[in-house]
Amino acid sequence: MATQYDIDIAFSTRHEQHALKILELPPELLALLESDNPPQLTISSALSSNGDPGYAILSSGDKNYQMRQKNTSNPIMILQPSSTGPTEADDASTFIPAPSICSIASIEDTIELILQEPEGVEKAPVKVNKWHEKFAKSRAAAKPKD
Questions:
Q1: Positive or negative, the Cα torsion across 91, 6, 80, 20?
Q2: Which residues of the chain, if any, have pLDDT below 50?
């Protein structure tokens, strides 16, 4: 059963929305930025293998992070407190403003940072298990012995 409240909060959306992006920070970079001596961050463009501009790179000291935009399935709304104003039907001299909330931005994309390995450091090969290999292993382990 739904409950009803005595107080309503008016909600509105600003006609001109701010263009914002959310940047997801890895824990180690967040700790550096919150330290007493935060590093300077720079954003540059990395060249792709064919010489065209590639990904944006965020650099902090000796660490580089590839910046990648990803969509969110549910937009994030940035809200700002406001108050209602009189309408044409209200008497402006006796109108009492009520608290309300106004949406000033809707964020549908976030930027994630992916740590880039330094040049010359070999990466360990990624083992890719195919579904049928996993299935065969699980069947062999579950097979009863005579």
A1: negative
A2: none
